[in-house]
């Protein structure tokens, strides 16, 4: 997935009920780091690493506590806390996502907006 490819998806717009946004899936992504952001602390940012070792930026707007609970059930509290502190951990996640271009302070980065996870 590249910025150029994501920009090409715009020719498929407008997106809506009869024309949903393109979604993709990726499995066995290593969770490198997680942190909560937003004015209301209701958005989860993640740095994931592909099986090929490529770092990926991801964001999740869903129920953060439900995701945290899921990860604790799968890997334990200690592993989840390691990820929230940016330390080495043994967690992996599979996601369904919509790719986006995130523009912040004149910098564009590829970001995966997580729709579903397991």
Topology:
Blueprint: H1 3-8, E1 24-37, E2 43-49, E3 55-60, H2 64-75, H3 77-84, E4 92-104, E5 107-117
Parallel strand pairs: 3-5
Antiparallel strand pairs: 1-2, 1-4, 2-3, 4-5
Describe the structure.
With 118 residues, the chain is of the alpha+beta class. The protein has a single domain (3-12, 22-117), classed as Nucleic acid-binding proteins (OB fold (Dihydrolipoamide Acetyltransferase, E2P), Beta Barrel). Helices cover 22% and strands 43% of the residues. It contains 3 helices and 5 strands. The protein has helices spanning 3-8, 64-75, 77-84; strands at 24-37, 43-49, 55-60, 92-104, 107-117. It has a 5-stranded mixed β-barrel. Helix 2 packs across helix 3 (77-84). The model has no long low-confidence stretch (mean pLDDT 93).
- Which CATH architecture would you pick? Beta Barrel
Helix-strand pattern, N to C?
HEEEHHEE
What count of helical segments does DSSP give? 3
Please write the CATH class name.
Answer: Mainly Beta
Task: Report the structural category.
Answer: alpha+beta
Shape: globular
CATH topology: OB fold (Dihydrolipoamide Acetyltransferase, E2P)
Output the radius of gyration: 15 Å
Number of domains: 1
Q: Could you give me the name of the CATH homologous superfamily?
A: Nucleic acid-binding proteins
- How large a portion of the residues is in β-strands, by DSSP E? 35-45%
Contiguous low-pLDDT stretches (5 residues minimum) are none
Largest sheet: 5 strands, mixed, barrel
